[in-house]
Write a structure and sequence with these properties.
- The complex is a heterodimer of chains A (471) and B (97).
- Chain A is an alpha+beta fold and 471 residues long.
- Chain A is built from 16 helices and 16 strands.
- With 97 residues, chain B is mainly alpha-helical.
- A two-stranded antiparallel ribbon of chain B has the order 2-3.
- Chain B is flat.
- Chain B starts with a helix and ends with a strand.
- Classes of the chains: A alpha+beta (471), B mainly alpha (97).
- At the A-B interface, helix 1, strand 8, strand 9 and strand 16 of A face strand 1, strand 2 and strand 3 of B.
- Strand 9 of chain A pairs antiparallel with strand 3 of chain B.
Chain lengths: 471, 97
């Protein structure tokens, strides 16, 4: 039988605040074990947690950027469970009054993946199991998280991937998280069930915990789909269970079933006051949101007329977009700016992280100067590429490579003279060209490039050459 | 309110406590007594709490939230001073197989 995949994701995103959610300890990644801890985040009796204002702000930002409504009266709840990654034996989270609800994320196809809720909570500590011991580091304990819960609107592993990528992009754009899956600042739990194609009644679901890579999410979903399909094909029933994915075997296995499901005994957190967020604050945050990725992509293609392939390459990295947009605002032409960025600078930005941070010593101001020279035909595109390449390597301004005299050297009058010489000294090429061999003109380009040390604008030269030959 | 042995067992499991059958049986009436005591509060308020306004915690205003400013943490020796520790880690009996 053919089955339809039904999936919803729970995504944990670590917020990029300076301090933890309930205390002033730093959230910086790493550090010697238990050096970023205090009585609050190690759950000492009598310690009083106080909610970090920026956590609330960031969660609202995330909510607004995913079209959620904001619950301006919100409180926290205790989620009880006994495991040593939580020193208090409960996690402070949100149960019945999440900060954000009823949003969506739009995929390229226009399909919307509903966001059920976004709530704030604290991260747990890190456990290392070795020989007879479990070693605990609470540095990460109390680091603020948002949990983004999607509706079961996802119908394929590819859609799941795109959804997570979109979330990642949105969170980075609005500056609430770096969303580095390999460092654990973004992790997903994937819920999966199957139903016969055409049915509307969901099957029994399983949940794969703690996925920290996009490709593992896709692989685990594909594996779990075939596992469940096989059970159903054989007339069996899927058992509701929590699964783990083994990256080495590519298989999922059961961690626990419904029988020993957790009973979290949620109740309102008595140590933290109910928070009332002023409407003006929400509006202030809304007004401070940058242009969101989907809007930017549309604007690049529809208004700036950037070709869709290049627009795709650019919009994924906000720092690159900021650079390009600034250069354009300083008068650089869109086409040359984009082509030089994607063509020349991207090869210098080797890693994702480099692109993420635009890790190059080229300023938008210098870029604009260079592009304008190319726009005005004062240098040809090859020289622009070479110069930009050197600028990216050496961090020097345009003037270090192209001097006033260089530019003066290719004015129109001189170019015409050189073109004449080119025609005169290449009679064979001219004859071939006249006979219809279009490519013969390259010999003339070569002559001009050599004569001007590559500084001539070949487009202009081409026009002059054609005029001269056809005379 | 009636308490069953099953509820005692569930609570024991959640609290990571182990009771013998005897203890479990003994706890049933004791728990009932505790619950009834709490329940008597209901009876005191003219037999009904439905009409009584819920007392929630005081409300925090926006300005009462904590500013996101780093404060010094405690020295790790202090954090681990009351526990068995190893190289700065809390060390407990292995929790997974």
């Amino acid at each position: 039988m053919k089955y339809q995949l039904v999936s919803g994701l729970e995504t944990h995103v670590e917020l990029a605040t300076a301090t933890k959610i309930f205390c002033g300890c730093t959230t910086a990644f790493g550090g010697a074990p238990n050096t970023r801890c205090c009585p609050v985040c190690t759950g000492q009796p009598g310690a009083l947690p106080i909610l970090n204002k920026r956590v609330v702000e960031f969660a609202i930002r995330a909510g607004l950027a995913t079209h959620c409504t904001i619950n301006t009266t919100t409180h926290l709840d205790r989620k009880n469970y006994c495991y040593p990654d939580l020193p208090k034996a409960y996690q402070i989270s949100q149960f019945d009054k999440p900060l954000c609800e009823h949003g969506y994320v739009e995929l390229e196809s226009g399909k919307r993946i509903g966001i059920t809720r976004i709530h704030i909570e604290e991260d747990a500590g890190k456990l290392v199991h070795e020989s007879g011991f479990t070693f605990i580091d609470y540095n990460r304990g109390g680091v603020p998280l948002i949990e983004i819960v999607s509706e079961p609107d996802i119908s394929s592993p590819e859609e799941a991937r795109e959804y997570v990528e979109k979330l990642q992009l949105i969170m980075r754009y609005i500056g609430v998280s770096d969303c580095k899956m390999q460092e654990g600042s973004m992790r997903c739990d994937v819920n999966i069930s199957l139903m016969p194609v055409g049915s509307t009644k969901f099957g029994t679901r399983t949940e794969i915990k703690n996925m920290n890579s996009l490709s593992y999410i896709e692989k685990a979903m594909a594996y779990e789909y075939s596992r469940q399909a096989e059970i159903l094909d054989n007339g069996g029933e899927v058992v509701q269970a929590t699964m783990r994915y083994d990256e080495h075997t590519g298989e999922t296995s059961v961690m626990r079933t419904k029988e020993d499901a957790q009973d979290y005994r949620y109740f309102p957190e008595p140590d933290i006051l109910t928070v009332v967020i002023p409407e003006e604050k929400v509006e202030e945050i809304r007004a401070s949101l940058p242009e969101l990725p989907t809007d930017k992509l549309k604007r690049y293609v529809n208004e700036l007329r950037i070709n869709p392939a290049n627009a795709q390459l650019l919009y994924k990295y906000k720092a690159v977009c900021d650079f390009v947009e600034k250069a354009i605002s300083l008068g650089a032409g869109v086409k040359n700016t984009v082509n030089l960025t994607v063509g020349t600078l991207y090869s210098k930005l080797e890693t994702e992280d480099d692109k993420e941070r635009f890790n190059l010593p080229v300023t938008a101001e210098e870029m604009a100067k260079l592009v304008k020279l190319a726009d005005e035909g004062k240098i040809n595109i090859t020289l622009a590429q070479k110069t930009l390449s050197k600028m990216a390597e050496e961090g020097k301004p345009v003037s270090a490579y192209i001097s006033e005299s260089d530019l003066a050297g290719v004015d129109e009058g001189e170019l015409e003279g050189i073109c004449k010489k080119a025609v005169e000294s290449n009679p064979q090429a001219v004859a071939d060209f006249k006979a219809g061999k279009e490519k013969a003109i390259f010999a003339l380009y070569g002559f001009i490039k050599k004569a001007t040390q590559g500084k001539a604008d070949i487009k202009k030269a081409d026009a002059i050459l054609r005029q001269l030959i056809m005379k | 309110m009636a308490i069953s042995e099953k509820e005692i067992k569930t609570l024991a499991r959640l609290a990571r406590l182990e009771f013998s059958e005897e203890e479990t049986k003994k706890f049933v009436p004791e728990f009932e007594e505790i619950i009834n005591f709490a329940d008597s509060i209901n009876q005191q308020v003219e037999g009904d709490t439905a009409s009584i306004r819920e007392v929630t915690t005081r409300i925090a205003t926006w300005d009462e939230l904590r500013e996101d400013e780093v404060k010094p943490s405690l020295p790790s020796e202090k954090i681990t001073s009351n526990v068995h520790s190893d190289n700065g880690y809390f060390a407990v009996r292995r929790v997974v197989k």
